[in-house]
Amino acid sequence: MTKVIIYIVIALIIIIVGNMLLPVPRAAIEVAAEPIGLGQVTNAMLTSFILSAIILILAFVVGRNLKEKPSGLQNIIEVLIEALGNFVNDIAPKNGLLLFSLF
């Protein structure tokens, strides 16, 4: 476990130093977030708030009625979580579950 943390810290240091010594030119096209008329709130922030609310409500509804034998919405959520877990395990077989728990 400590070796993994050491490797991650070393990789981050290499990335940071590499970006300082060899900067990459910025893209010619940039799309900035646009204000939507609610003060400092931008379209990206509004979308983020809406998606966060949907995910929290969905988690609350599914988590309230958990059953040993899933059906309906709980079954769909379990399939999605299992698919994401398998995807992470395919990418990192040794530490897949550790990495998946971070998300």
Structural class given helices, strands, pairing?
mainly alpha
Helical residue percent? 55-70%
Strand arrangement, major sheet: 1-2
Low-confidence stretches: none
- Strand count, sense and closure of the main sheet? 2 strands, antiparallel
Put simply, the count of helices is 4
Shape: flat
Indicate the mean pLDDT.
83
Provide the succession of SSEs. HEEHHH
Counting DSSP E segments of at least 2 residues, the number of strands comes to 2
What is the first-to-last residue Cα distance?
18 Å
Strand fraction equals 5-15%
Rg (CA only): 20 Å
Overview of the structural elements:
By secondary structure, this protein is mostly helical. The protein is built from four helices and two strands; from the N terminus they run αββααα. The chain has helices at 2-21, 43-64, 73-91, 96-102; strands at 35-38, 41-42. A two-stranded antiparallel sheet has the order 1-2. Strand 1 (35-38) and strand 2 (41-42) form a beta hairpin. The model has no long low-confidence stretch (mean pLDDT 83).
What topology emerges from the helices and strands here?
Layout: H1 2-21, E1 35-38, E2 41-42, H2 43-64, H3 73-91, H4 96-102
Antiparallel strand pairs: 1-2
Helix pairs in contact: 3-4
Descriptive tags:
103 residues, mainly alpha, 66% helix, flat
Short structural summary:
This protein is mainly α and 103 residues long. Among the domains are: 36-65; 67-103.
